[in-house]
């Protein structure tokens, strides 16, 4: 599978042995920047936050999330700031419970099964079977200002349900600057502004009698 990095396991053993037990793992692991309380899983038996685990628990198979009515599932992950994503980390399975592919949507906070067909994906990958964590390189230009990411798993590789053990992300994080834009917007969005909108509907395109 071209998107699966076969050397990932070796990469882990050589680079990260020194921080074994460290929940942060690689320096660009975004675990601590995920808004875990607001992770949402649709058509799933369990909470989406179950699969958002510290680095040292990434291979743990005691906790997982499984699709419910069929083998489709959506997981939405919000971040506490603006992130630039470099890689998606995914552990799924076993075997035919592995999703066939994962379809990613950037900044689609309310994505559900009804409107997903009308949305253009940001990127997607074929998912390889395996007991390790797969690392999938993202197009950073398309994931450079991300407040949330939604992952659609359209079908399994043969089983009645899809199962995910671990989701993680590598990249950089910037604190979200909220106060200035909101202050400016509220200062300008006064009653006069609303009257202007109403007047436009009534007037400028046709004369009043």
From TrEMBL:
It comes from the Eukaryota. This is PITH domain-containing protein. Residues 1-30 are annotated as: Disordered. Residues 19-189 form the PITH domain. It comes from Favolaschia claudopus. SUPFAM superfamilies: Galactose-binding domain-like. InterPro entries: Galactose-bd-like_sf, PITH1-like, PITH_dom, PITH_dom_sf. GO terms for cellular component: cytoplasm; nucleus. PROSITE patterns: PITH. Gene3D superfamilies: PITH domain. Belongs to the PITHD1 family. It holds the Pfam family PITH. Residues 1-27 have a biased composition (Basic and acidic residues).
């Amino acid at each position: 599978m071209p998107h699966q990095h076969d050397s990932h396991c070796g990469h882990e053993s050589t680079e990260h042995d020194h921080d074994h037990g460290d929940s942060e793992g690689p320096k660009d692991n975004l675990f601590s920047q995920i808004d875990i309380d607001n992770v949402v899983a649709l058509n799933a038996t369990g909470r989406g936050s179950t699969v958002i685990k510290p680095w040292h628990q990434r291979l743990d198979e005691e906790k997982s999330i499984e699709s419910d009515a069929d083998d489709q599932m959506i997981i939405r992950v919000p971040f506490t700031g603006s992130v630039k994503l470099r890689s998606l980390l995914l552990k799924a399975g076993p075997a035919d419970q592995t999703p066939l592919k994962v379809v990613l949507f950037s900044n689609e906070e309310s994505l559900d099964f009804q409107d997903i067909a009308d949305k253009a994906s940001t990127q997607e990958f074929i998912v390889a079977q395996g007991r390790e964590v797969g690392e999938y390189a993202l197009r950073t230009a398309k994931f450079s200002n991300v407040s949330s990411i939604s992952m659609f798993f359209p079908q399994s590789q043969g089983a009645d349900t899809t199962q995910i053990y671990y989701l993680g992300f590598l990249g950089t994080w910037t604190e979200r600057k909220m106060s200035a834009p909101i202050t400016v917007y509220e200062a300008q969005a006064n009653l006069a502004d609303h009257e202007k909108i109403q007047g436009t509907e009534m007037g400028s395109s046709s004369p009043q009698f």
